[in-house]
Design a protein that fits this description.
alpha+beta, Transposase_17_sf, Transposase_17, IS200/IS605 family transposase, elongated, Alpha-Beta Plaits, 6 strands, four-stranded antiparallel sheet
Length: 142
């Protein structure tokens, strides 16, 4: 009797591609001023979970501290991380000050909520040295 094949939940399929792309994003408010309370972090997560649906991405994990948030997103190859990040940050930057005006306004600098820069790192999968070795050891045709 053969073992039952279990699909890997991290592998996603499209018409022409099979992928498992994960990215770690970190967003900080302008000048790392600390506007986040536990309640505001929960609301920020809710807003970002709603936005990610428009991009067919999955928000695998979300957490933060008073002065930054971390996201782990599972995204298809057709999604530009810069576009996804811009949308996530943009919607939160509009919603949070509307919903928590007294608290958030005192942390804004020139009405800008997020710092324009952010780190993005690919993660998961095979370590780069192993992939490099695999590619180097492939036989060339002929």
């Amino acid at each position: 009797m053969s073992p039952r094949w279990e699909p890997n939940p991290h592998i996603r399929r499209g018409c022409t591609v099979v992928h498992t792309l994960h990215a770690h994003l970190v967003f900080t408010p302008t000048y790392r001023r600390g506007p986040f309370t536990d309640e505001i972090l929960r609301r920020c997560e809710d807003v970002m979970r709603a936005v990610r649906a428009d991009f067919e991405t999955k928000l695998v994990d979300f957490n933060g501290e008073t002065d930054h948030v971390h996201l782990l997103v599972h995204h298809p190859p057709k999604v530009s991380l810069s576009r996804l990040a811009g949308s996530l940050k943009g919607v939160c930057a509009r919603r949070l000050p509307q919903e928590y005006p007294g608290h958030i306004r005192k942390y804004l600098w020139g009405n800008h909520f997020w710092s324009p820069s952010y780190p993005a790192a690919s993660c998961g999968g095979t370590p780069l040295p192993i992939i490099k070795e695999y590619i180097e050891n492939r036989k060339r045709p002929g």
